[in-house]
# Entry
Amino acid sequence: MAYNEFAYFYDEFNGEADYEALYAHIKKELEAHGIHDGILADLGCGTGELTLMLTQAGYDMIGIDQSEEMLCVVRDKAEQLGLSGGLLLLRQDLLKLDLYGTIRGAVSTFDTFNHIPDLDKAIANAGFFMEKGGVLLFDMNTPYKHQNVLGENVFTFEEEDASCVWRNHYNAADRRVEISVDIDYRETGEHFHEQFYEYTYDLDTIRAALEKHGFALESVCDGESFGPLTDESERYFFCAVKQYTQLEEQ
# Structure
């Protein structure tokens, strides 16, 4: 899945996201595990809000996304902030992740892993490049959100020169949300249509994938309040620690 035209609506779609609270929680977890600097990867960095906050905090960030349009937005923001160093942007599919060396940790937010049909492979790839003791911090939409919040809902966004309609359909048999995005530009009359999926993963499946690839799941909390999970939590937030390197595994 790659957001293309929708990249330019993404920040508005995420307008209610509390990036400051997310950043504070991630920074706290990193520091609690002794990671105050070094190389971090943002897996599915989107428009780069969190990536750039971590860059400003002194981390050497690798922002990875499959969408060139998303990465263009990150570049523009980085230039405006004067962040020429400490940031590398890569256009890659997380199922084919290929980094140039090891990383101290990785973050993945706003349900990036829900968009991946093979969660096991995505976690394996993140773990392959991570140092022993490295931390994987990520969130995922819960089954409750897929079934009861996204469900059949439609979201509409209006800009001065364009409109965007986001439609959802939950397919219980396939355990996924079918999503379609339609964008219309008023001045040119152009129309763009994108379709993709969010896959539903329960806690047991996520925990098993982490353990299989050398991670110990330290904690799971509500991904919006960062407090305890409830039956109506819409997002999980995970903290997992790499127990051994690939060389030690072999």
About this structure: The longest strand covers residues 130-141. The two ends are 32 Å apart (CA to CA).
